[in-house]
Amino acid sequence: MSRSSLGVSLGVAVSMFLSGCSGCSKDPNEGQPAATVGEAVETATAPTGKPTAVPTTPAGTDAGPGDAGATTDASATAEAKPPEELALSPATGSILFTGSKVGGSHDGSFKKFTGTLTLVPDAIENSKVSVDIDLASVSTDNGKLTDHLKSEDFFNVAKFTKATFRSTSIKPVATMKGATHTITGNLDFHGVKKSLSFPANITVTDDKVTASAQFSMNRKTFNVAFDGETDYLIKDLVFVRVTVNAPRKK
Fold it and tell me: 28 lies in a domain?
């Protein structure tokens, strides 16, 4: 097999990160929401779990915050639940992807990743997500493809050993089908750092936190492209899927 034809076969799943649909001719990105990409932003400070105490002044007075008439919502502060640190790993979730080319697709995943969900139980939007992905742990449904993805042609895992994601905001949404929140964060991958926003469905119960996200993203945003004449046969969009099923500490 020539290098050219091998590049087409192996480059299919390069269309970067995270989800699944094997060998289907239909574009797996069809009908999926597209991630929004922008310039990386400063990471917000760690959540405290403590609501801000707001001074209040009885009606009809001009007492300042330091006056006897000023009060604070002490009860709310006292009852606020502290943040919880939940571990993220292949034991509590998955990072999957599907890359496509003309006539087919390949599934892949990352077998090694670590991270933390800093959960603020009373205010999910104040929670934080941090994930480190071992790029050498990439695995696909084709052994030769897996090896090629690790090479300098694509992920170049010898130089770029990991990808990182640090959330900067988690905002509730009410009108998006299948999603409860929009997660935004800085994705540092393949030497490129960008802000990435995508929809997610997040559920918090007394026992666990479950979350799922699926979206399409453009591999070329992160300079993941096969340097050959056959790269045009590989679709730029990659179908991404992430799941979390993290138990809470009793």
Answer: no
The C-alpha atoms of residue 51 and residue 70 are separated, in whole angstroms, by 18
- Over residues 73-92, the pLDDT tens digits come to 545 555 778 999 999 999 99
Domain carrying residue 185: 3-21+35-43+82-247
Classify residue 134 by burial, with Cβ atoms within 10 Å: 0-12, 13-18, 19+.
middle
Domain annotation covers residue 190: yes
Inside any domain, residue 240: yes
Total-model pTM:
0.76
Q: State how many domains the chain has.
A: 1
